[in-house]
Write a structure and sequence with these properties.
204 residues; Arc Repressor Mutant, subunit A; Rna Polymerase Sigma Factor, Chain: A; elongated; mainly alpha; single chain; 10 helices
Length: 204
Amino acid sequence: MSSLAALERQREPLVESDDDLLTECRAGGEAAWRELVARHTRRVFGIAYRFTGRVDEAEDLTQEIFIKVYQTLDRYQTIHGAFGAWLGAVARNQAIDNYRRRRQEKLKKADDPAVIDRMDSGEEGPLLSLERQERVRLVHRGLKALPPDLREPLVLCDLPGLAYEEVAEALAIPLGTVKSRINRGRLELAKRLRSRHRELVERT
């Protein structure tokens, strides 16, 4: 029976590990790279979707992430832990960079008076539309005014909806520091918004 069992095991297809596939990738193996991508696409797409909230943008970001991973394969070493964990860190960092770029573009647009003039008021009516846009601009300006150490964890937690643990990993700071900075950031932002609101009320 033992010899038969050994024979059956020999007949079973061998599933290559990530490390085996990485070795082949570094040697130029295209099939190995395709297998790695297929194996980890779902996880990377999930990270991308959490930051974008749109399927089409998440698909584009997923491609960007895998391009980044391919370009930096030589940086991965087994001492960094499992390849999947390293890939996840690269994906989150790339997603954060992408999110920051998009956010800066939106902030610039929000500060452009021409954007408000071009906005479609829809069913809200022009006054309600302007009020809503003004609230958005106030929040954006309040976030920009926060110190970077308070702004970054707050933005990552409240907008793409990352968990505290994910924010801590992305920013490479302790979990307790993340919680403290997010609480302080929210309080500081609320104070700035109340102050700005009072200024606007007094002007009217």
